[in-house]
Amino acid sequence: MTKMITLRVDQSFLADLKRGYPLILKEAVVNTDMLREEGELIRLVDRANRYLATGYYGNQNKGIGWVLTTKEHEEIDGAFFKTKLKTALDHRADFFEDSQTTAFRVFNGEGDGIGGLTIDYFDGYYMVSWYSDGIYSFKQYIYDALAELVEFKAIYEKKRFDTKGQYIEQDDFVMGEPGDFPIIIKENGMNFAVNLNDGAMTGIFLDQRDVRRTIRDYYAEDTNMLNTFSYTGAFSVAAALGGAKETTSVDLAKRSLAKTIEQFSVNGIDYEAQNIKVMDVFDYFKYAVRHNMKYDLVVLDPPSFARSKKMTFSTAKDYPKLLMDAISITEKNGIIVASTNNASFGMKKFKTFIDKAFKDSNTRYKIVEQSSLPKDFRANRDFPEFNYLKVVFIKKLNK
Ligand code: SAH
User: Fold this and answer.
1) Taking all residues of the chain, what is their mean pLDDT, rounded to a whole number?
2) What pTM was estimated for this model as a whole?
3) Cβ of residue 301 lying under 6 Å from some atom of ligand 1
4) Which of 73, 139, 216, 219 has the smallest CB count inside 10 Å?
């Protein structure tokens, strides 16, 4: 059995822990100096030495590990991981049956009972992401369980923790028959090219599935659409398929051009009829204002933090400014889709950013739709930090 370290929880964190807060925060534990090696099991006790929970040691952002069970005598072994995985797979039964959507999340970290581990499904391929050395030390259990429970073409993995301060470029293949990438997955009937063995990202962010569908089905028709921080242009594809007259995709990364052309092409859309700009979004706003360009539909989906040559952008600080730029180039009655995946603030705070931006622009608005994580991204709704995605559709009412 793996070694077990007993850690005492600070009184002020007891209540949250008892309510099911799964992350073991560094400051929640009194004697962290006991910890030696990531992957060792942690027995959490209160100051009277009463048992609270069992977890594992793995460094990840603010946490030193995750709670795995609150049953004192539950063994953390192969059977434990298999049960968690089986339950998670059962929750996605509808997805496995849906021929129009062939990519989704099958295991969502703490939402499925094991923080630090996610597993995504891409049309027969599985992508396992490991977020700490600690959880990675259990990999044999998890791969054995996965291989027993599902049929797969191949399994790939990404180690999203750093050994020496950077993402390790690696061959991500684990087992099975290596794929011929890109593969084409389906999402509500749309096609997306995906590559599981090409750096940190796959080409599609699965957590925005519902938003892409909403854009295609309800907001795109006859619009002139602007997609900022567009990455591979997935929102532009959704808009074009929903009948947008024209789309413009803007991203700083050089690779975004070829990737966006690819996403249009696999959907039979003539990419030459669309605009794809490799440039800084903030420069594009200035350019659009100078040329009096306006859009009916503007998507804002920035990374939580971004650094370019000229500036740093943080959603927690700069979102109102970003919105003001967007407001200035949106038509009257146009829609702004404001999205953020920043876990450090919730929906309420996000709406104060929206309100501030419209007030400072002397413009009236109406929130017409909002959404968060899709069903396959299971999350504990009691703690908003794990329910990180916030998307608000805002109608600009005047000017
Ligand atoms: N909206 C995308 C995902 C965005 S990921 C989707 O739905 O798939 C964030 C993207 O922002 C990255 O592709 C990155 O290259 C881009 N980015 C970061 N800073 C930028 C800036 N200042 N201007 C333009 N793009 C930027």
Assistant:
1) 95
2) 0.96
3) yes
4) 73
